[in-house]
Amino acid sequence: MTIAASKHDFDRLWNGAEELAVLTFNLNGETFAIEAIVVQEILDLLPETSVPGSQAFVGSVINFRGKVIPLADIRLAFGMEATRPTIDSRIVVIELDLSGERTLIGIRTDRVYEVTTLLRAASEPPPSVGMRWRADYIDCLVKRDGEFIILPNLDAIFNSRGERAGSAAANSDGR
Amino acid sequence: MTTLDPIQVFRTEAAELFEQIEGGLLDLLHDLSNQDQIDAVFRGLHTLKGSGAMFGFEALAAFTHHCETAFDRVRKGEVSASAELVACVLAAQDHMKALVDRPNGDNAEEGDRLLAELQAAVGGQGGSGTVVTPPLAANAPVAADTAATTWKLSFRLPSNAMANGTNPLGLLDELRELGTCEIRADLSKVPGLNQIEPADLYVSWQVTLTTYQPRSAIDDVFIFVMDEMELQIEQQSSTAPIAGVKAPDTPAAPAAEKAVMEPQARAEASTPAVAEAKNGKAAENVRVPAERLDELMDRVGELVIAQSRLSQLAGSSVDIQLRAVSEDVERLSGELRDTMMVLRMVPVTQLFSRFRRLVHDLARETGKMIELEFEGETTEVDKTVIERLADPLVHLVRNSIDHGLELPDERIAAGKDRSGRVLLSARQSGGEVIITIKDDGRGINRERVRAKAEASGLVQPGQQLMDQELLQLIFQPGFSTAAQVTNLSGRGVGMDVVKKTVEALRGVIDIRSEPGKGSEISLRIPLTLAIIDGLLVRVGSGNYVIPLSAVEECLELSLEEDLRSRGRSFISLRDSLVPYLRLRDLFRTGTAPDPYQKVVVISTGDERIGLVVDQIIGDHQTVIKSMSKLHHDVVTFSGATILGDGSVALILDVIHLINVGQQQEAQLRAAG
């Protein structure tokens, strides 16, 4: 099921095109990329307000131009450790469709690199074995300059939060 | 900018007209001879016909015309209004609504049936020939027993008539439809070419019209422009009646003095057109799409936030001028906010008036006699609240009538009036509006509620329940005590939706019910959804807002009480025990408590709990921002707000906290 779903996500992401414009950033030393089209803005760190009782990976909210938006740490969804903010830390604000509702979400990153173009030819769906992360949270991996860039499946991460990411958050709590 | 779709404009207008017609009809039921209401209904029908034809709703216009004609006879006193007639017109009105929604819908048969009923209702009394002559089908054969009359008309429209949207050619066309016309334009007032204002109207007309239609048909042509125009109508001759005598409902040949129709003279005659014009002046309204209001509301909200930042800056500055400006801005934005709130407020009449029809229909369906009464209709509530409350209230009123009220015979047996009373009332109390549905029916049968709850596993047999808890069970999903399912209610859907909707509006439902005497359900809803007065408190390092309407009082939690109450979490407040929650524990702040903690006592209805906080900062005007879907599972907070320094504070959900407190209390009781 996972492979089929990933294949589907993979096709949807590229949508027949050979190139994809993305924003690349760093999380715990890994390079991630988000489709540039969903990115709204890149912000310096802002004062956060933690939301008691919420799940760890969306544990706080920020004031984004007069709107209160959740601040997510997708590291926790991938079971990575949360690191302390550095001078390079940024918040990437994206807009997603959460079960029919356009939602702005801030994503914590360790460092934002650039807007770049990835080639479909260099990409491959996530392997079903041999990976530390949940395959359905990843759309595809793109090889570039000898390293892999990870394209996370944001829809899966945020929409499935109720059942599955919850366990990831719980794991990170237990650590 | 978006241009408004004219069809949509018509639909909006039609909806208002339907409301007017329906209101008039229902009032008429109480006083069948009330001429004002008859006129109001007639006016509504007439305007609907006119606008309908103007916007191309031909079927609607034709159908409405027949109703109007029938009603015209009532207006003229030829037929007296009756309950059957009102019911007929109400049914016809529903058909009109359908025609507005689906102008091309295939429901002509339904229309014909209704018209036949209508004819039966007015035809029984008061006259030979019925006056049903479709004007839109000009070549249709005219009523045979009417004489053709020749009229000489001359009319002059005001010079700005075309700018106001009147098309004189349209009027002439309408006249032509009435009969043979000879039209002559009077060009004597047309100025020289260099003085012509292209948009002005300089031409007047003289028309010789030979028609079988009555005089009123001619008046109808001009009904929308009558107030501003000069119009003279004179009868020239009446050709020999085609078939015997003149129909009685053709107005007698107008006397000469009546023929001159100067606006002043018309004013006394209280015709529909005049009354309409008066209404128009009395209340000038601008119709604005709700989204624009919402946008404005957002801006004002942001302004309030920016302003509180400014006053924080100014407060820490020594610059006198800056402070003066800041105070001005504070005052202005406060006023702006208040004005904005008023803009969104509409009287609950809008909400209540739709129940008259519902109750009327229900009374017919159930065979019960129902008097619906209103109280406090002028109470104003945020428009969004009104819209969202409409459906829940329908459920509650239906329930009251279907389950609550008894049949007339049962009522008499119980020593009550034959007709049951349902009272809908609204009043404002602090920052809340309380809407009450009260009936004098049989009340809620507690045993049956209990049995049903036990049967469906909501309650354990033998479990102790407070009365209020027991009554609240009716809001559980799938709960229905009706022995049999009727068309109206009893399917167990609805009441839980009512509760959900009310809670989504941050409101509370109270139920009171006395067996045999009746039930009373009160909805307490905050006046507005967008801005609330809140009490800003600090817990640990976070700021939180408690809605001020829920706050009863604040007191200090003394050190010894703090220590003493470790075990039981109750404080005694004027001889009553109030359970309290330590928010720092609930929120797991992980910081050391302040030496002097405060207790904020909050309440909804009869239930109170205390919230222990570290510091009370003060009251705070709060613009509510909703939380995203990602935080919908966090039930402790109903929203968030942005403070003066740009940081976010969360708004506590009072109802939820009180529930938590109650559970805690129950556990403690069970344990101790």
Automatic annotation (TrEMBL), chain A:
GO cellular component assignments: cytosol
Domain CheW-like: 19-163
A GO biological-process term: chemotaxis
Top-rank lineage group of the source organism: Bacteria
Protein name: Purine-binding chemotaxis protein CheW
Species this protein is from: Rhizobium subbaraonis
TrEMBL record, chain B:
EC number in record: 2.7.13.3
InterPro entries attached to this UniProt entry: Bact_Chemotaxis_CheA, CheA-like_dim, CheA-like_homodim_sf, CheW-like_dom_sf, CheW-lke_dom, HATPase_C_sf, HATPase_dom, His_kinase_dom
CDD domains, per the entry: CheA_reg (cd00731), HATPase_CheA-like (cd16916), HPT (cd00088)
Histidine kinase domain sequence ranges: 281-529
Keyword vocabulary terms for this entry: ATP-binding, Chemotaxis, Kinase, Nucleotide-binding, Phosphoprotein, Transferase, Two-component regulatory system
Catalyzed reactions per annotation: ATP + protein L-histidine = ADP + protein N-phospho-L-histidine
Alphabetized Pfam families for the sequence: CheW (PF01584), H-kinase_dim (PF02895), HATPase_c (PF02518), Hpt (PF01627)
Any one cellular-component term (Gene Ontology): cytoplasm
Chain ranges of the HPt domain: 1-103
In-chain residues carrying the UniProt-annotated modification Phosphohistidine: 46
Alphabetical GO biological process terms: chemotaxis
Matches recorded under SUPFAM superfamilies: ATPase domain of HSP90 chaperone/DNA topoisomerase II/histidine kinase, CheW-like, Histidine-containing phosphotransfer domain, HPT domain, Homodimeric domain of signal transducing histidine kinase
GO molecular function, one term: ATP binding
Chain ranges of the CheW-like domain: 531-663
Protein function: Involved in the transmission of sensory signals from the chemoreceptors to the flagellar motors. CheA is autophosphorylated; it can transfer its phosphate group to either CheB or CheY.
PANTHER family found in the cross-reference section: CHEMOTAXIS PROTEIN CHEA, SENSOR HISTIDINE KINASE CHEA
Protein name per its UniProtKB record: Chemotaxis protein CheA
